[in-house]
Amino acid sequence: MTADRTAYRPDIDGLRAIAVLGVIFFHAGFQWITGGFIGVDVFFVISGYLITGILLRELRDNRFSLTRFYERRARRILPALVVVLGATLAVSALIMLPGDLRVAARSAVSVLVFAANILFWRGVDFVDKTLINYFGLRLHEQPLIHTWTLGVEEQYYLLFPLTLLAVWRLRQSWVLPVLIAGTLASFALSAWLTPRSPGIAFYLLPTRLWELLAGGVLAWRSPQTGGPRITQMTQIANGARDIVAGIGLGLILVPMALYDSSTRFPGIHAAAPVVGAMLLIGYAPGSAIGRFLSTRAMVFVGLISYSAYLWHQPLFALARYTSLTGEMSAALALVLCVVTIVLAAITWRWVETPFRDRQRVSTRALVWSCVIGIAAVATPSAILAFGGDAGRRTPIASGVVGQSVLALFSDCNISLQPTRGLGLGCLLDPSSEAPPSFLVIGDSHADALYPAFAKASRDTGRQGRLLQNFACSPVLDPTDSSFGTPDCMRMHEQALATVTEHKIDRVFLVSRYAHDYMPRELFPRRLEKTIATYSERGAVVYIVLQAPEQPRFDRRVYLRALLRRRFLGEDPSTVARNLSVTRAEHEQRQEFVRGVFEKYQNDPRVRFVDFTSAFCDTGTCVAGSVAAPYYVDDHHLSVTGAVLISGAISSAVRP
Question: Which 3 state secondary structure label does DSSP give 443?
Fold first, then answer.
């Protein structure tokens, strides 16, 4: 071993193989490995061990360089990542519906700004673990959901070297105590938050840091870092080494078989794979398990593990996305596992390996390649995510990425604005500093119409705020005692406070009015109370009439018809018509509420926003066009459907 190079350990590549295969088989849906997600935790320990070891050696040899460190990380991470992101985005653009493509493109932008874990944390409903948001794709249909781990590691790479350097310069003897203290503190935080805020515990660096630092503690005591007390760790009998390594392997394989989606994770359950990885890194060399991990097959999979990790989820997700059931057969899953390995081997051979060699790719060539590659992916990603009907805020391409970063965590239709968690709702144009002049309040249909109101806000220059709560009617109770869940009651209270504070002149009520939120005989009185209450505060009430419900609509059947049109030239009109409701059925469904609304047709306190004509002719209320469906389910509009009626919204918003 030279001063500049770590002695290669093939067993660590073998451990990488176990980790990546666990993750791949888990995402493939194989029921015998329902806990394969813990492979990520094994990766974190390995990363912490290797990165800390490199930094400690350079610090001890007085060769530490942040520039050199980040260059190595760029060589390791960026080339393969850019290739996979570009390929994923290109295929997604071919097969995804516009609203779904927008989510995938926004995910790509978040990866490039080291924030994928934050985006998915803000967008995931961790109660049922199936949605990125109420109208988004199920998690296993998200082609880039797995990149949250890159966000964690990238943030670690940014912060850890600087922290380690500062501690080292203060006092070298403090490094190990700081590593141990950080590990224990982060583990305690993870254990405490996992049952209370599972999204934070799962996705964010502070609750995952202990897994990386555990590897760092191991690196401090590793023979390869040159520390003064470290050789004691490796001096044990071979028989004992086999036992300890066997325990380590068991602490990884058993949770892979026993853990599942109901396991509270990470928290204390993550301790098993983390300790298992530490034991294998520490004691596998010289053991039978170490020899198994060092076999050519295991080492090969370990060498291509990064590319395999990048490729597997896009393949699985897009296969599920185009399926009529949303699932993959075991045979297809197995085929895609093989395809993953093949693509990973190609990427490792022709992308990873050349870029990691400074003799083949100079620093200058690396920088220019990364700049051009990132721009080639980031620009179309940003345009797809925030441009066109989504309402790009700047007319020049150079501003697209900046505006994308601004809106990554501010669009409540994709991710949850921090203000929304506080009950304050979402600003419709977060780039504007103007106070809100109109308010949108309602149930999940208000959330579905977010793109329409956001576009109207930008087009008219009038800032608005959206308050919504799922299954919460925007109408008030005539007895002044709000009804519904506590969150629903808070929404009503916040709406009234917002109207008063900002002197709101227009309040848009959005709801699935035909749904039985309350006994029908109570609806007229509650509606009158609502209109009177907002009118007393100086606001005109705009009742947004419900879009036609589509009881026969099947999103997957519609998508399949569109794909057959795109690739085979078949006409989807018949499928679209068969999935659409008739005008008579729509009017019958809305008959009661329309009768209640009739009373207010000439009331100066009330206006109506009716976009029925955008969907219905005399006979049919269409579920979509030959380009995209207007719905995400039987009654919520898609982004395409919402944008379709944004003109009517703009007319109501405009002074």
Answer: coil
Candidates 235, 230, 232, 206; CA nearest to 218 is 230
Closest CA to 85 of 301, 313, 303: 313
Whether 44 and 271 have beta carbons less than 8 Å apart is answered as no
**N-term to C-term CA, the chain:** 74
> Where would I find the H helices in 399-539?
400-407, 418-421, 444-448, 450-460, 486-502, 523-536
Task: For the sheet with 426-427, list strands across it.
Answer: 426-427, 464-468, 438-442, 506-510, 540-544, 606-609
Domain containing residue 481: 417-653
Tokens 């068991």 sit at which residue? 250
Read off the pTM.
Answer: 0.89
Q: Distance of CA 395 to CAs 110, 374, 403, 427, 450, Å?
A: 21, 21, 11, 21, 22
Query: Does the structure show a pLDDT above 60 at 405?
Result: no
**Confidence category of residue 221, pLDDT binned at 50, 70, 90:** confident
- Of the residues 286, 309, 340, which one is the last residue of a structural domain? 286
Residue finishing a domain among 222, 251, 286: 286
- Residue 53's CB is within 10 A of a number of other CB atoms, namely 20
Q: What is the CATH number of the domain that holds 513?
A: 3.40.50.1110
